[in-house]
Amino acid sequence: MKRALMVWGGWDGHEPQQCVERFVPFLRGAGYEVDVRDSMEVFGDAAALAEADLIVPCWTMGVLSAEQEQGLCAAVRAGSGIAGWHGGLCDAFRNNTNYQFMTGGQFVDHPGGIIEYTVNITCPDDPLVAGIADFQIRSECYYMHVDPSNEVLATTTFTGEHAAWIDGCVMPVVWKRNYGAGRVFYSALGHVPADFDVPECREIMQRGLLWASR
Question: The domain containing residue 12 runs over which residues?
Answer without folding.
Answer: 2-107+172-212
